Amino acid sequence: MDMNVGPAWARGYTGKGVVVSILDDGIQTNHPDLIDNYDSKASWDINDNDDDPMPRDNEDNKHGTRCAGEVAAAAYNKYCGVGVAYNASIGGVRMLDGSVNDAVEASALSLNPDHIDIYSASWGPEDDGKTVDGPGPLATKAFINGVTKGRGGKGSIYVWASGNGGRHVDSCNCDGYTNSIYTLSISSATQAGMKPWYLEECSSTIATTYSSGLLGRDKSVASVDMDPLMRPDRLCTTEHTAPLAAGMVALALEANPNLTWRDVQHIVVMSAKSKPLEKETGWTTNGAKRKVSHKFGFGLMDGEVMVTLAEKWTTVPRQHVCRTPEVIENSSRLIVTMNVTGCASEASEVRYVEQVQCVVSLTMVPRGNLRLVLTSAQGTQSTLLYERPRDTLSSNFEDWPFLSVHFWGEDPVGVWSLTVINGGNGNVRKSGTYMLITISHVYYR
Ligand SMILES: [Ca+2]
Ligand SMILES: [Ca+2]
Ligand SMILES: [Ca+2]
Predict the structure, then answer these.
(1) Which residues form the P/Homo B domain (predicted)?
(2) Fewest Cβ atoms nearer than 10 Å: which of 87, 175, 205, 285?
(3) What DSSP letter does each residue of 19-43 carry, written as one string?
(4) Residues around the ion ligand 2 (C-beta < 5 A)
(5) Could you give the CA distance from residue 287 to residue 98 in angstroms, rounded to a whole number?
(6) How far is the CA of 314 from the centre of ligand 2 (A)?
(7) List of domains in the chain
(8) What confidence tens digit (pLDDT) does each residue in 12-57 have?
(9) Which ligand is nearest to the CA of 166?
């Protein structure tokens, strides 16, 4: 269950020269299994505004250090285990141990973008099954600056955990950080290849790594642990939960440092494997013949295939963004169809779909009753939103950019349809007052 990282190491890729920063509650900079790979230029303490991201020692602030260990715990030193990219440079931004606002997020996302290659984060709105929220104006600008100017213009790589709100039937598409085209949104599978209890289903998840499952039945992730007192029995843990994707991407970037942020997304899509996760239900095959799931995206990440693809990768053509005209419905019509031309014979002509954003404004009360299904011209159905029983609020969706990666590689031309379903148990008190839809196919030709 090593996600084929061993063969990538055997080809000589261990993350050397690649810089990863964990945006979390800090990083124990003097940890014996991290100290050799620690990179102060990939680190900052936003909470205390200094250059030392050492976590506050109150038993709560262990997560960032553990995540750093997954990526870059050193090898051959008798401490703990081995990071996926055990020769990568690793830093941490201390930002979650205080009030987190738009400005805090933006400064974390835009730290030293010509030095840091990969930012890894697992925060966002509450996983309570009723919140719909995303990056504010400053964080949005930071993402856009990162992908356009970071890494010398090749684009910063943002790796994001898809969320832990499974217990509350949350949807990761209601989280504007995972639901962003700029982040690689990564889900988790148990060691048995099943959906863990905390998993959130949605169409913006691109791929999956192993993580923890049910305590006592499934193993968790082994990593380093935060202990400033350096007690040998407290310096490692076998009880960590977090996707391992940042280290996997570091291996691919070492194999080919010229990869752009979109190249990395393509490589993740093409290398992910559905097979180890097919015991779990819900796989469909899209119009480009790729298996995809709302639980796992395109499947389990594979280190060997990632570096092999990276080695011989040709940069994808420039991104074209094609928007369909808005559709405004003032009724409670349940199926909205759109004729998509793919902007044929325009400068933004699109031949292969990457992401599809469906921007929706819609009122349904209770909001959690709503299910939205987008069907492509090729007949692929992707659920943009599953019902969220706890979402009993009377708030709207206002210009919410639901993202699906499920149409990746399809020809966009033809009739697309969005189906609005009242899927909840409760009575709808109000629905369909107005609806506004645009679809942007973000893709290349
Ligand atoms: Ca500090
Ligand atoms: Ca070690
Ligand atoms: Ca969530």
Answers:
(1) 308-445
(2) 285
(3) EEEEEEB---TT-TTTTTTB-GGG-
(4) 33, 73-74, 77, 79-80
(5) 46
(6) 35
(7) 5-311 (3.40.50.200), 320-444 (2.60.120.260)
(8) 999 999 999 999 999 999 999 999 999 999 999 999 999 999 999 9
(9) 3
